[in-house]
Design goal:
2 domains, mainly alpha, about 5% strand
């Protein structure tokens, strides 16, 4: 089996350091770039990077667009191909600044990694998100079992994420000490909690329902009083495995250790929603659920801003307008209203319009 050349291995190692230390990118982002580079090497039979020509980019694009996914058996999505080609374009743009590559790679050849305008538009298209309602989440919590420590943990996970909107990576790394039940607060300390962009901030429990708060409170009490956990122990400890009589691994309890990643959380969510008769809603989708709830509950600019900050967003628009676009469900709702005869504007609507204009002015001053 052919492997990367010594030169390729060396420059990839340098590129990883560049992405991590100069660009400040996290491990998952760097891993994505490395997968794209590895794909290119496989498709070009591990060509030495300093021999790169436009023809290699052209052939790589064609092969990738025709390649089928191992998981689905269908052709790779345009979004996947677009991501890979962008990673490679960035990588080769880095190479032309490095000794030993500067004189050998033609900068214009790198442009051949670009997809067609049509494929780029398709790759950039935002897909409709599968978002749970608060009612669906509450129904799921009500039917989830909680007779064992593992079942209690899994139920508390769902409750905690809808209470806080925290990302699953942050939840997996959270400790008991980061939760203040009296203040109903999750202190996301980036020194210990794996937050996005290593940002430290406080999240106060969202006003969703009493059930999630009760579940989380009882879970923490159980950890401390029944299992003897300390403040520095994981809020959601990993599963303890042991051999059964058939010498097969089975879950037997909990360890005072963090999960190494968020995969067990996603697996638990999938099982919980399927058992409740709902489609799978991943942990991150709960943030969209909370955004929709905020759109209904928030009435003043200050309320919008507080809700947004609680999700860890610096910009209100990040939370409520999906990076500048009207969400699909909101678009449908507005168009249905427009199909009906116009009604006189109520004083309540006038107040909301004034509040919106005040919000726009507040954002313009920042």
């Amino acid at each position: 089996m052919k492997k990367s050349s010594v030169n390729n291995v060396r420059i990839i190692h340098e590129y990883i350091k560049y992405l991590r230390d100069a660009k400040g990118q996290n491990h998952s982002t760097i891993d994505g770039a490395m997968k794209s580079i590895n794909r290119f090497e496989e498709h070009t039979d591990y060509l030495d990077f300093n021999k790169f020509k436009a023809k290699h980019a052209i052939v790589f694009k064609k092969r990738l667009l025709a390649q089928k996914s191992i998981v689905t058996g269908e052709k790779l999505s345009k979004a996947t191909v677009l991501t890979a080609t962008r990673h490679l374009k960035t990588f080769f743009q880095y190479l032309v600044t490095q000794k030993g590559y500067r004189a050998k790679i033609n900068y214009s050849d790198i442009e051949y990694f670009n997809l067609s305008e049509k494929d780029t538009r398709i790759g950039n298209t935002k897909r409709k998100r599968n978002v749970a309602t608060i009612e669906q989440i509450m129904q799921t919590l009500e039917v989830m079992p909680f007779s064992t420590a593992i079942e209690m943990r899994d139920r508390a996970l769902v409750a905690f994420i809808i209470l806080t909107g925290a990302r699953d990576s942050a939840v997996a790394s959270a400790k008991i000490k980061h939760i203040d039940i009296a203040e109903q607060c999750f202190y996301q300390d980036a020194r210990e909690v794996n937050t996005k962009f290593s940002k430290t901030f406080s999240t106060y429990f969202f006003p969703v329902d009493e059930l999630p708060s009760t579940i989380v409170t009882e879970w923490i009490e159980y950890l401390i009083k029944e299992l003897g956990f300390k403040q520095s122990d994981p809020l959601f400890p990993k599963t303890k495995l042991a051999h059964n009589k058939n010498q097969q691994f089975e879950a037997v309890g909990l360890l005072k250790e963090h999960w190494s990643n968020a995969n067990p959380i996603r697996k638990g969510f999938k099982q919980a929603f399927e058992a409740a008769g709902f489609p799978y809603f991943n942990p991150h989708s709960f943030r969209n659920t909370l955004v929709r709830l905020g759109e209904n509950l928030c009435r003043t600019p200050e309320e919008f801003k507080a809700w947004s900050q609680n999700l860890g967003h610096e910009s209100v628009l990040t939370s409520f307008y999906s990076y500048g676009d009207v969400p699909d469900y909101k678009q449908a709702e507005l168009l249905r209203k427009l199909s009906k005869p116009a009604e006189s504007t109520s004083s309540d609507m006038e107040d909301k319009f004034k509040q919106f204009m005040k919000f726009q002015e507040m954002m313009g001053e920042k």
